[in-house]
Structures are given as structure tokens and as C-alpha cells.
Design brief:
Layout lengths: L1 E6 L5 H15 L3 E5 H8 L10 E3 L8 E6 L1 H11 L6 E5 L14 H10 L2 E6 L2 E5 L9 E2 L2 E5 L7 E7 L2 E8 L1 E5 L7 H4 L11 E7 L9 E4 L4 E7 L3 E6 L2 E6 L4 E5 L4 E6 L4 H9 L8
Parallel strand pairs: 1-2, 1-4, 2-3, 4-5
Antiparallel strand pairs: 6-19, 7-8, 7-18, 9-12, 9-16, 10-11, 10-15, 12-13, 13-14, 15-18, 16-17
């Protein structure tokens, strides 16, 4: 068995977690590889050396499982590195909220034991793919959480024409539009009033950002539908964000968004459900009244 590790290189707490993981996996004679940036970050601490560890220097790596240590942002970047490799990912949380990284630091060893013994479940998460109709390239045109169309300047709104399966649906006057997967329904989409959608559903959520019309509400459509977008802006350009990776486009660049042709596999602990995550992260069911 071989496990690859990616992590947040801005949180010193990750050092102790990595030491715990490497010590445990070495004891069980499991091969370990570390992302190059993470390796250098860990090596910089004099009290811990990762030893004879394979270093991941590109996206061309192999592993049976991947560990993502950090917050949801780290998980998203890890998923981008995994891409089409079909390698299950376990998220270990050192961030704040953590919907994707739901294994806490004190539960690292039980989670590793579960991986070794095969006592876990795998959830397949859909992704969104974006293409520009004029051929403008994207370095990584896929998003696990969301694709956001946003204004670049603060003084005025943008106009977004939305078509679904070639049928014109709406013209949004807003600060932007969030196109989200069910996985991303608890991210940016939720913050702009979008619904929470369980990951197993096959949907896409379309949520406006600060719409100029109070009658405009989020829309949920099947994920096998094709979304076409045309944007107009006073500044003659707009911004696209794919899981936080941003790109500025000219307003005549039309976009098409659809479900990607592969999924990301997420490792979940046995007897842990999505609603357990909602209860712990959003404090559902907790009454703080005296």
C-alpha cells in the first residue's frame, strides 16, 4: 500500500499531524510520499525530519490513497492534483469549518486504521467542467465546489444571460452568478442564499450574487443539463473563479458549463453521515437559549 500526502503549508499544527501519520504508517510498513512543497515546509522545522520519503514533484504520481491535511481549500487543490487518477482522498481538518475535511486531528490514527483495514466508505463527488467558446484555455477547467462568474470592478453590476440546454432562461443583473455542485452547496453558494443539497443528488445549483431583482432566486437543475453563459460588463471584462482559481476574461468570451466526465472519490468513516457533518459544522439542533 502507498499513501500520498498533500497539505496546507501555512499552518504549523500540520507538522505534528504529519509526524503522527508518518510514524504510524512506517510502523505498519506502508510507503509514504509527500508533496514537494509540503516536504520542504516540514523539513524546515529542526525538531522533525521526514526521513527517507518519496517526494511528489509533479501531478504524475501514483498512490492507493491520498491524505489532504488542512481545510476545504487544501482539499480542493488536492482534488485538482488527483484529477482523473481515481485515487480516494481522505480529508484531515486543521482549518476552520471543514465540510470536505471532516476528520479531526485527534481522530487521525483511527482513520488510518480504517484505511488499512478497509473499514470505510467512498462517496463519489461530481465535478463541473468549463469551456470558452472562443477557445480561451483554462489551466485546469474543472471544479469540485463551484464555478463563479463575477464582476471585476466594484462600481457596477454585470449582466449574465443564462441558457439551459439551448433555451434562454434568464438575464441576471447582479454582482455575479455561482454555478455549484452538491458538494459546493455548503460553500460560496450557501453564503449567497443557495440551498444545501446532499452530495448524492445529481444536480447543479445556480445562485445569483447580490441580484438587482428580488424576484430572482436560486435554481436547481439536473446535472446532465448544459449551461451557456454570455456576460456583459461596463469594464468590458469579467472574472471567472473555479474553486478559487481566478481568470479574467473579455466580455465577448461566452462560456459553457457541464458535468465533468469523471468524479472525485472521497473517503468517509463508517457510521458517519452527511447530516452528522451538517450538525457539527452548522450546529443544527443546538439550542443556545438559556
Amino acid at each position: 500500500m502507498k499513501i500520498a500526502i498533500f497539505g496546507n503549508t501555512y499552518r504549523p499544527v500540520i507538522i505534528s499531524h504529519i509526524k503522527t501519520i508518518i510514524d504510524y504508517l512506517s510502523l505498519n510498513e506502508i510507503s509514504v510520499s509527500l508533496d514537494e512543497d509540503l516536504f520542504e515546509y516540514v523539513k524546515a522545522y529542526n525538531n522533525f525530519s521526514p526521513g527517507d520519503i518519496e517526494i511528489i514533484r509533479s501531478d504524475n504520481f501514483r498512490a492507493d490513497y491520498v491524505l489532504s491535511i488542512g481545510g476545504d481549500g487544501t482539499f480542493l487543490s488536492t482534488a485538482a492534483r488527483v484529477g482523473r487518477k481515481d485515487i480516494p482522498i481522505l480529508g484531515i481538518n486543521t482549518g476552520r469549518l471543514g465540510f470536505l475535511t471532516d476528520v479531526s486531528g485527534e481522530k487521525i490514527i483511527p482513520a488510518l486504521e480504517a484505511i488499512i483495514s478497509g473499514k470505510f466508505t467512498i462517496e463519489e463527488r461530481t465535478l463541473l467542467n468549463i469551456t470558452a467558446k472562443d477557445g480561451t484555455p483554462f489551466s485546469y477547467p474543472v471544479a469540485l465546489n463551484d464555478i463563479s462568474i463575477l464582476k471585476q470592478e466594484s462600481s457596477s453590476m454585470i449582466s449574465i444571460n443564462l441558457s439551459l440546454n439551448n433555451e434562454p432562461v434568464n438575464r441576471y443583473q447582479a454582482d455575479g452568478l455561482v454555478i455549484s455542485t452538491p458538494t459546493g452547496s455548503t460553500a460560496y453558494s450557501m453564503s449567497v442564499g443557495g440551498p444545501i443539497v446532499v452530495p448524492q443528488t445529481r444536480n447543479i445549483i445556480i445562485s445569483p450574487v447580490a441580484s438587482h431583482s428580488l424576484s430572482v432566486r436560486p435554481l436547481v437543475v439536473p446535472d446532465d443539463w448544459v449551461i451557456d453563459l454570455e456576460v456583459k460588463s461596463r469594464s468590458k471584462n469579467y472574472m471567472v473563479s473555479l474553486d478559487g482559481r481566478t481568470k479574467v476574461l473579455e466580455q465577448n468570451t461566452q462560456l459553457q458549463i457541464s458535468r465533468a466526465d469523471y468524479t472525485i472519490k472521497v473517503i468517509k468513516q463508517l457510521n458517519h453521515t452527511y447530516f452528522d457533518t451538517l450538525k457539527s459544522k452548522l450546529m443544527w439542533g443546538i439550542d443556545k437559549r438559556n
